[in-house]
Amino acid sequence: MGASDLDTAFFAAWIGEVARTIGAEKDRLTRLDAAIGDADHGANLDRGFTAITQALADKEPGTPGALLHLVGSTLIRKVGGASGPLYGTAFREAGKALGDATEVSVAELAGALEAGLAGIQNLGSAAEGDKTMVDALAPAVRALAQAVQDGSDPRQAADAAASAALAGAEATIPMQARKGRASYLGPRSVGHEDPGAASTALILTALRTVTAQ
Ligand code: ADP
Ligand code: MG
To answer: What pLDDT digit, counting tens, does each position of 49-74 carry?
Structure first.
């Protein structure tokens, strides 16, 4: 792969793989949310990504940026709760960061995910350690930036990002929630993986899957 090689078809494949894995794992996500929330996280995201799959089948956007923006807008429209606006904003900000380019580099993808993380934190004001999706996304963004700095190829970069997101999600288990519905449980939120961190890990794992293809 060259320096500027992630095209719209790549992003469509990524989002398609996200939709597939969210569908396959929605019961697990909902079980995680049943433990420390209201048991709707898997259903929420599956509804959103099913609508996205439909929208992309109707008309695939012409650029990676437009595609991610459509993903974000659909999530905001279709997914309720906390995660819809948060993920929706993240994908829209990531799309905006990519501008009108028809192909983007891994460095630009890293920058877009960083913009997505900033969008989540501006909206939800969660820091790392608060037991949210930020605990999976922030380390993934750092791993991606480090991989770019090290001159890694897209496959190595996505692998590092996915590993960091999975580790970050697992690290939420001993945390006490300080944001979102789970925070109402106080110390009883300890001992469970955060559902949003788990779904973020799925999104990054899907990136690894399509990059390895
Ligand atoms: P709701 O909590 O409204 O039912 P979901 O169940 O779809 O929404 O999503 C819950 C997830 O949203 C949590 O597991 C957490 O990762 C994430 N979340 C909640 N509040 C925040 C916040 N302020 N910042 C970042 N993420 C948050
Ligand atoms: Mg919920």
So the answer is: 999 999 999 998 999 999 999 999 99
Q: Indicate the domain borders of the chain.
A: 6-211
Residue 195 beta carbon below 6 angstroms from any ligand 1 atom: yes
**How far apart are the C-alpha atoms of 51 and 55, rounded to whole Å?**
6
Indicate the burial class of 94 (C-beta count within 10 angstroms; 0-12, 13-18, 19 or more): buried
Q: Is 14 helix (H, G, I), strand (E, B) or coil?
A: helix
Residue nearest to atom 1 of ligand 1 (CA): 81
User: 6-211 is classed in which CATH architecture?
Assistant: Alpha Horseshoe (1.25)
Residue showing tokens 């320096």: 3
Calculate how far, in angstroms, residue 106's C-alpha sits from the geometric centre of ligand 2.
32
* Assigned token pair, 181: 């519905």
Pocket test for ligand 1, best of 27, 38, 133, 189 (most atoms within 8 A of CB): 133
Q: Is the pTM for the entire model greater than 0.90?
A: yes
Alpha carbon 62 to its chain centroid, in Å, reads 21
Compute the distance from residue 213 Cα to the ligand 2 centre, in Å: 33
* CA neighbor of 33 nearest in space, from 65, 81, 73, 72: 81
